[in-house]
Amino acid sequence: MEKRLKEKLNKYLVFIACIHFLISFFTDRLIFHYSLWNFTDGTAAIKTIFAWGSKAVFLCFLIGFWHFWFWFLKKADRSFVRLTCIYFVLMCVLLFLTWPGIWRMDEFGILFEAENVFPVFWQHYLTSVFYIMALMLIPVPSGVIFLQNACISLIVGWILYRFQKLFLTDKASKFIYFGYVPFLFLPVLDSNLYPMRMSLYAFLELLLLGEFVFLSVEKRISGKNVITLAILSAVIINWRSEAVYYVLALPVCFLVLFWRLTDKKMKSRFILCVLAGSLILAVPQKIGESQKQFYKNSHEYELTSMLLPVVPLIGHIYMDALASSYYPESEEAALSALEDKNTPVIFKQVCRLYLMDRVLDVYKAAQAAEEGRTGISLYWSDDEFVRDYTDEQYAVFRKIYWQLVLEYPEVFLKERLQTFLQSEDLLENTTEMFTKENVPNYETFRNLPMTAPVSHRLRNGVISVLELREAGDYHKKLSGYSFVYSALPAMVLELVILLILLWKRKWGYALLLASHMAKIPLIFLTAPSRLFMYYYPVYLTGYVLTVFLLLYLWAGRKGMKAGIASGGSSL
């Protein structure tokens, strides 16, 4: 293996990467605040280890970076290069117009911790790794968005290139430019300029689904393809918590799609690599989540998925519980009363509220329910809403929460449906980032290098167009906003395509699409806020599938020769 690795590495490119690596120690000073030799105490030693670890990862990144760009510019198919560069140039223009990009809230925390070469586990440590690599490559905040758009453009170019080669005849190949359409939708362009994990994650998931389809249509898959798919699968499984089910779904999809195209060794390799890769990537995140210095409580992230429904559920039982004169003397007494089948219902409600109050302030939750405020807004605005609870208290809280969900499904589903239908928000007004005073995140960001926009008016105008806001008044949404920034139409289109696949007996493709759509009910049940980004992967995939299907039907049927129309044996 060592011999094969040496044959693949170009010594000149390795030398360039090493020179780049040495230079980065000087350019890092523009943005980073880390020490490589501070072992004065335990915390300093940990930070030093993080710094050296990050630099080691960056060296590996640079070696891959320079080899990839050499291949891309010298050896890659010209169609792939052209299709990639067209989209990348467009995104560079938009980044220039909206410089330094679209920054809203959570990403400030990731950026500021990345300056200290430290991970933020709330948005997953992989997001911090991406930030750190991007900032070491381009030491300004917009370097994160620049690298993100480079990755997205490569994915767009690759998908278009693969589709063109597999499904379009030479005569119809010019129609591939219509494939850009779903990637030019306003929410997609806006998301590309927004440095949050969902922006890149959605494209990585699209790439994985696309490669499953393309390889099955080609009716050939190599060992290299298997490893690539497995690594990409492991990243997707870990980077978003709602994708955990993919650890089972993707191996099943692989076996169904490639059963006759792979031998036993390749099948086992894919499954083992997905499982091992997922486990390796999951361990650092689990360790980070368990550390109190990163979270107020070890279950804080999971708790946020309950905050929206728990407020109306508490409000629903709160007034009845107030009418009771019973009050438990201790947590043990409350637990005993709940386990006793003879305990009156009203007493059980009192005990439930008493035990839930160990985790969050049920009085404030009930007030919020009465006033129409959401649990997540209360969480972010009131530091005392969530208490300093133990693991045991949280386990009881979670059990009671699901008991209430099952006993009052109408309350739970009403809130979940309302959240789903209103999931079109974009979190914060990014146009006031350079004008609003006394906002710590904004003021810290402004002091970073090369953050000033080319033109405040130009930046705000372009963002207003992308986000369908009235010029000069960001809070006024233009007509059509609720349709454009809604994932519901894309979900309907995905469902229609799924039904067509089932009708055509394309079982492999139907299973793959159904696996992707399985995240919809998971997000529906656990979405912590009414934000468009939670459903963004579904939005992107739904419209891409629809446009590419129409393109295939309209422009050419070369895919029939590859077996897709005849229902290939592997499907």
Inertia-based shape = globular
Q: Roughly how many Å apart are the termini? A: 34 Å
> Can you write the helix and strand succession as a string?
HHHHHHHHHHHHHHHHHHHHHHEEHHHHHH
Strand-residue fraction?
Answer: under 5%
- Classify the secondary structure makeup into a structural class: mainly alpha
Give me the number of helical elements. Answer: 28
Low-confidence stretches: 559-571
Going across the biggest sheet, name each strand in turn: 1-2
Structure summary, number of beta strands: 2
Oligomerization state of this entry? single chain
Major pleated sheet: 2 strands, antiparallel
| Helicity range | 55-70%
Whole-number mean pLDDT: 88
Our Rg estimate from Cα atoms comes to 26 Å
Describe the structure.
It is globular, with a radius of gyration of 26 Å. α15 runs antiparallel to α16. Helices cover 67% and strands 1% of the residues. It has 28 helices and 2 strands. It has a two-stranded antiparallel sheet with strand order 1-2. The protein is mainly alpha-helical and 571 residues long.
List the helices and strands and how they pair.
Blueprint: H1 2-8, H2 11-27, H3 42-74, H4 78-97, H5 106-115, H6 125-137, H7 142-167, H8 186-192, H9 197-218, H10 223-239, H11 246-258, H12 264-289, H13 300-304, H14 307-322, H15 331-339, H16 345-356, H17 362-371, H18 375-381, H19 391-407, H20 409-421, H21 440-446, H22 456-466, E1 469-470, E2 473-477, H23 481-484, H24 488-503, H25 507-517, H26 519-526, H27 536-555, H28 559-562
Antiparallel strand pairs: 1-2
